[in-house]
Every structure is written in C-alpha cells, then in structure tokens.
Amino acid sequence: MNTLYIVATPIGNLEDVGLRSLRVLKEVDLILSEDTRVTKRLLVRHDIKTPLESYHHHSSESKLNSILSLLKEGKDIALVSDAGTPGVSDPGNKLVEAVYKELPDVAIVPIPGPSAITALVSVAGIPTDSFLFLGFVPQKKRNKFFEEIINSPHPVIFFESPYRIQKTLRELSEKGEDLQVVIGRELTKKFEEIIRGPLDLVAKNMQNKEVKGEFTVLIFQEK
C-alpha cells in the first residue's frame, strides 16, 4: 500500500530530527514542503536527494489534484512544514482530509517529532496535564480571542509573530489580572530565550525591546 507520511521536522536546530524521519525522507518518491528553501537546508544537511516540491496555503486546487494523482499512481509522499509538525497551524490538514475522502486505500502515517508547543510546555514549570492550544493570534476578533484565554480554566498556548508580540502582550495584560506568562522565543535556535513571570511586568519590559524571531506563548492563572 502506498503511503502519505506526515513528517515532523526541526523547529530550529537541524540536529533535532529523528532517525525514522530521515529514513522516510530518503525513501519516499517526493517531499512536499511549505517553503522549499527552508526544507532544502535540512535535506542538504543530511544528504537527502529526494525530489522536493512546494505545497502551501496558496497552492491551487490543480496542485492538490496533482498530488492525489501521484498517490493514485502508487507514489509514496512525505509532507513536511517549515518547522515542527505538519497540520498544526499550516495547510497540511487540507491534504490529509482530501486523501481520507478520495483515496481511502492510501495509508496516512504520522512520523512524530519536534513541536514548539511541547517544547515550551516542558520548561513551563506548571501542571500541564491539560492545556488549550489556539494557534496564531487572529488579526480580527482579537477581543474574543483574548476573552477565551482569560476565561480558560486551563493554561493556554498560542503563536505570535515578532511584528505583533508587543501589542498582543500589552492588550492581553490590560484585559486580564493576575495572569502569568511563559514565552519561548526562537526555541532550539542560537538565540533561544525563555521569559517567565507576571504578564503585566513581562509585557511592560517587552515594550522597550527590539524583538525578533518566532514566539510561542503560554498564559496561565497564578494558583
């Protein structure tokens, strides 16, 4: 049976990739990635010469149909995202859904690995037997998003860009009292930084910084 593999890749440090992931990426007929330039660095680092094509949010319906045709022909395909696990805040879920609906005989196999979510949870220092993940902060309906965070009985994790992180932290601190935050910036990369403390204080300190990199944020209520 031919297979669509959903392969997790490093979120920063290229050494954070599993042996099974490397084997699958070498053995499949094609690798699909959000940004081929990003994935190419991983492939070159590990001497993987498998053909590489792009598949992202803006890929056309004809591109999706072309991928389905390859699977019908018996090709094995690996899907990767720019970083971390496909299907988590990226377009991987659309392809997986299409395969389930149109090609039920194709096996869909997860190859687990790095995730910014679990990386931050592991250093949060709070009970995380349950938490809520909300993906990227929306540009619209932000107040509703913030209310969901503030009213959640569980710790909440979300992603934010360097262009909006200061605004998001400031607005959230203005709406919620006694909130605590753990921020992971550039997780696993050279300039990795973990920031932890009261949200209002962290938000205030962040306003005076030049911020760069990718942010994973965990908000929780002080017990």
Put simply, the count of helices is 8
Cα Rg: 19 Å
Give the helices and strands as they follow along the chain.
EHEHEHEHEHEHEHEEHE
The general outline is: elongated
Mean pLDDT across the residues is 93
Strand order, main sheet: write it out.
Answer: 3-2-4-1-5
**Looking at CATH, which topology of the largest domain would you report?**
Cobalt-precorrin-4 Transmethylase, domain 1
Helix content: 25-40%
The CATH architecture category of the largest domain equals 3-Layer(aba) Sandwich
Topology, number of strands: 10
Tell me the domain tally: 2
> What portion of the residues fall into strands of 2 or more residues?
15-25%
Describe this structure in words.
A five-stranded parallel β-sheet has the order 3-2-4-1-5, with helices on both faces. It has a five-stranded mixed β-sheet with strand order 6-7-10-8-9, with helices on both faces. Helix 6 (142-151) links the parallel strand 6 (132-136) and strand 7 (156-160). Helix content is 35%, strand content 23%. It is built from eight helices and ten strands. It folds into two domains: 3-111, 3-Layer(aba) Sandwich (Cobalt-precorrin-4 Transmethylase, domain 1); 116-221, Tetrapyrrole methylase, C-terminal domain (Methyltransferase, Cobalt-precorrin-4 Transmethylase, Domain 2).
